[in-house]
Design brief:
The protein has 261 residues and is an alpha+beta fold. The protein contains 6 helices and 11 strands. The chain folds into 2 domains: 125 residues, FAD/NAD(P)-binding domain, CATH 3.50.50; 119 residues, Polyamine Oxidase, Chain A, domain 2 (Alpha-Beta Complex), CATH 3.90.660. A hairpin with a 2-residue loop joins β1 and β2.
Amino acid sequence: MSARASANEFDQEVEKILVKDGKVYGVRTARGDEIHCDYVISGPYPNKVYSQMIEPLSEVPEGAIKMINNRKLSVVPVSVIMVIEGTPEENGITDYSTFSGTTTEPYNYITTICLNYANPTLPKGYTQLSITALVPSKPFHDVKEEEYHDLKRRLANEMIEECIKITKVDFRPRITEIEITTPITVSHYVGAWKGNIYGYLHSMEDHAVARLQMKEKDHFIEGLEFAGAHGMSGDGMGPQITNGRAAAKGVKEDMEKKGRL
């Protein structure tokens, strides 16, 4: 922002990014406040920004729509989060983090996290375990409401069975609490585009080097930068920090060019 934001402007959901003559000039929040600024760093995916958030939509260049249509979403997480009666050792779990799978097929290749090994203050006599599979997002796009809970249960059973092959202990009768999350869960609570938290798929046509080469051409609206897993460097904690730094650098360089910094 070009001016300091007052305290009541923080922690507000932005519904619209206001653009005129190809330049950002502010945002409108969900409660109706209009905050004027020269720069916006967006967490939401370009898919959502260019299709729903730019006001007016006539300010969205054709190239931006072509870009989001050409990019493929990366994998999405399906997780089973459990509290299991008994210690980790009693349930056959001996490590904090384990990657396992005989193939990379969906729901076969899984990662497990046992929080007990990271936090010894957790309640004694119980195992806190999560199982996660990273899968394509497309199969979830057309899930019907009446099918959703059966789908979650089926996926959870498959993933638990894969985990039991590794632990050699059938802990299912000891499960005291269980939550199953899908890309639909992520989309609902986090607002990530189609439940995707891993950005765009890296491929021979669309990778970090190619994105760097296209950086200027893919910058469609002056003052609008993007930071998150969908940024140039891709997903993961390290790349997301790099993406955030690149967004801040873009704003800084533009301000310097205009003699405002």
